[in-house]
Each structure stands twice: as structure tokens, then as C-alpha cells.
């Protein structure tokens, strides 16, 4: 978690301003929960071949304040929380092995992420459409957290209100009701559990699916997806986590960037102390239309080749990218604050230490609650290009330097 330090002198000036300004009710020191750097663990990474298989026991808990287990699911008939991969989650003790991380890292907090892209939205939509179904779901979550000793739930509904993914016009309200009811159940249980919500930066998705101000009030944290804002499906080469608009951004791509995406949540009523910025440890890849057309915005004809470990066209983990960079031409998009690389055939937009520092600096300046990174198994976790976890360590360094800073927010009328 990344905060802006406030000196005693600065705090005194802010207090004077608070007294004089008619628009400010109070100066609030917030962030007792917000000191966080959240790492993600993906269960499917265990299936990689040989020593590239990534297991729960590989998780470097000393680098993270929180680790998230991806994913659990909504049961399509009972509407309760359930294992997504019971053969691993239950039969191979995935849940209990994950909880056992606390034995090695006593200060770590563990969350379960429910949903994800493959899960779809229809199960969420149907579960939330009646109070009785929501009540059943919430009760099952409480039971799950007690049973497996997790510390909270991250709801990854992609995306409420999206008809193509099984949504309905009522999702926007029902999603808020769900989070409010989960929060109440956690409070009634008298446990320090948290409920967070992973949300998009795309304004078109926000309008149909999210009551921004109410959702921010109900949830403990809002995790803004600051990546996959571009990809091979758009048919032009680009970095997928740009910080700001560039000259070539037109139409729906105007405003589709990290800063604008986060600011929509802040301007919509979210306290900075509740907003966590998501950053990728992977890149998006493209096939170039011509060898000469290699600048940002150049035409492309499809997804880049699948990687040896991630095995998905158009997608490479940093563990794969760092190994091929010596054979590519490297460039920097100054406005996007992101690197890219290309050869005569393929083009990659990705994150490196410099681009992550730019995002972290912006999060610090805007007093956000922290950073989450997706995912541990996409970093150079075996250290084939140098020290293991180079990108994770960049974020962890800032977290350690700023985790005790005071976060100051204005409570406005």
C-alpha cells in the first residue's frame, strides 16, 4: 500500500485550511486498513510442465501484505460459494494449503476471489436477483471464511449489466445490495473480514453496472483493473495499461487509460483510501501487418504467438517476455509511461520496473490505498533473467517505504 506522507507542518496547514474552507467538513486521517500490496495466486499455474509449475508453496508471502486465491465460484443451483476446481481446491487441499501460508507468514492476509472471466456473469446475476438467494450466498461465504480461515472476499463479477455475459438491467442495483449485505454479515460475525470489489476502468461498463458512490460506501476496497485496456482484438499495436491519452487515441479509446479510469471512481464518490490500483505482470502481444509498421497504433493482423508457460495467444507473462527482449527492439511510450518491444513479426506491450514506478508514484501522489499485481506466476518467479520476482520486488519496495505514512482525505459536504 502506498501513501503520501504528511509532515506535522503540512498537517497544521491543512487543518487551518479545513477551518477556513466552507466546502470542507473535516480532515480525516484514514487508511488503518489501507496499507496494502496485494498479490494474486492463480491455481492453474500449477499445471505448467517441470520446474515451471507454480504451487501454493512457491508464494513469496514476505513480499505481499495480502494474497488472493483465484478463483472460487457461485454454484449455479444452490447460489452458494463453491470450489471452482474441487479436484484441487478440496481433494488436493488447495484451500487448506493456502491458509497454511499464515504459519510461515503470520502477518499476511488471505482473500478468496470469486468469479473471473471464465466464470461469466450469469451466475452472479441470477444469484443477486432475489433477496433470498443473496441471503443464502452470504451465509455460505461466512461459513467458508470460518472453515478455511481466510480473511475476506474479492468479488470479480465481469461484468454486471452486460447482456452478452448473462447480465440483466437489474444487476446494477442488485450488485450493490449484495455487497451491502456481505458487509453487514461480516460485521455481525464480529470478525475483521473484508469485502473488496474488482471493477473496470472503462466508462461504458461503469454506466450500466455500478452504483459508484453507494458501492464505494458498502465495500471495504475498490480494486480498479488498470490493464487489458487494449489488446490484439483491437487490430492495432498498443500498450495495454497506458497512463494517459495519446494522440492516436480516438473514439472509445479516448479516456480509456489508468489515470482516467481511477479518477472516474474518485470523482464518483470513492475515498482514495478505498481505491487500489491493479497493475499487470504480463504483456499483450500482436502480429504486425508489415515489418515496417512497428510504432504504437500500427495495424496488426492477430494475436502474437502463445508462450511456453502461459500457452495463450496474444498473452505473455513477464517470465516469458524478459527472456526474449534481448532479441527485440525496445522502445518507450512517453505519454503512456509504458515500454514496448518488437521484431519483424511480433509486437509486445508490457510492464517493466520503470513503468511500474510511474504507476506507483501516481498512486502515492493521489493517496490511493495501494497496488494489486496480477499475478505472481507471471513475474520472473524462477529468476531466469536475474533476481526472482523483479517486478513484484519493485512494488514491495515502495510498499515497505510508505506503509506507515499517514493518509489524509477530506470529508466534504
Automatic annotation (TrEMBL):
Residues 1-26 form the signal peptide. The keyword Disulfide bond applies. It comes from Aedes aegypti. Pfam families: Glyco_hydro_18. This is AAEL002959-PA. InterPro entries: Chitinase_II/V-like_cat, Chitinase_insertion_sf, GH, Glyco_hydro18_cat, Glycosyl_Hydrlase_18. GO terms for biological process: carbohydrate metabolic process; chitin catabolic process. PROSITE patterns: GH18_2. GO terms for molecular function: chitin binding; chitinase activity. Residues 35-402 form the GH18 domain. GO terms for cellular component: extracellular region. Gene3D superfamilies: 3.10.50.10, Glycosidases. The keyword Signal applies. Keywords: Disulfide bond, Signal.
